[in-house]
Arsenate reductase
Amino acid sequence: MSVFQSSHEEVVDAMEEIKIDISDRTPREVTFDKSTERDYVITMGCSADDVCPAGWAGENRDWDRDDPDGKSPEEVAAIRDDIEQRVNDLFDELETKEL
């Protein structure tokens, strides 16, 4: 059993509902080095201001999502669905910028 699954089983279950297996995944910390390699850093309830360098040309967005830990399956599914919509909206926004 992975660290992610053992600490966030409700998330693994919610993703399985939509046929995505994340049982072998673990959360990753946003580090200074990793943020400089990205155009966008998206956080979910925490800021990346501490790791995004002042001269970095990218963009940091905090989607301020509730922690799914201990939430009901319905609440976790709602968080999952909201994140999916935000990702789709971001892709639409980026596609529009490229036109």
User: Anything to note?
Assistant: The mean pLDDT is 82. The chain has four helices and two strands.
